[in-house]
Amino acid sequence: MESMSVGPESEPELELDEGGDLENLESDVRQMAKKISEFRQTLPDHLRNTLDSALSSHRPVLPTINSGSDPLPSSSSLTLPETQGPGALGTEEQDFKEKVIQLKARMSKNAANLPKVVKRVRECIDGINKLDSLDGTIHPAFRRRRIN
């Protein structure tokens, strides 16, 4: 009958078991915190590498333009190479190559116009700064309404 009675002797054993469980839980929490910190450190690099590899696998291989010191490529470097027969290249491939050539020509024209755009942006910024320094009154119709 003594083995079935619950007395003061059995309570310390329960506390020790709870202490052991508590230590196990604390060690599990420490391990999880360590894993989380490792994931936080390595996950951005892993995602960046995965994204780079996925994008590079979908990126088409473009032929290079043989351009010298000229910012605009010459029309001879943008022409399609002569094929040996009229049906040597498929029409899809030919269309794709023509689109690539047109795209590169547009990009080079845009790059050539970039200094003009930068100059205009600087002029606009100077004009805005000049208007800010005038301290003139602004008509209420041109003021923004503030929402509080």
Describe the model.
With 148 residues, the protein is an all-alpha fold. Among the domains are: 47 residues; 46 residues. The protein is built from 2 helices and no strands. The longest helix has 49 residues. The radius of gyration is 36 Å and the shape is flat. The mean pLDDT is 76.
Structure, briefly:
The protein has about 150 residues and is mainly α. The chain has helices at about 10-60, 90-135.
Helix content: 55-70%
Residue-averaged pLDDT: 76
Structural class: mainly alpha
Low-confidence stretches: none
**Which descriptor suits the 3D outline?**
flat
Radius of gyration: 36 Å
Total E-strand runs: 0
* H/E element order: HH
Largest sheet: none
* Separation of the first and last Cα atoms: 77 Å
SS field, number of helical segments:
2
Relative strand content: under 5%
SSE topology:
Elements: H1 10-58, H2 91-133
Keywords:
flat; mainly alpha; 148 residues
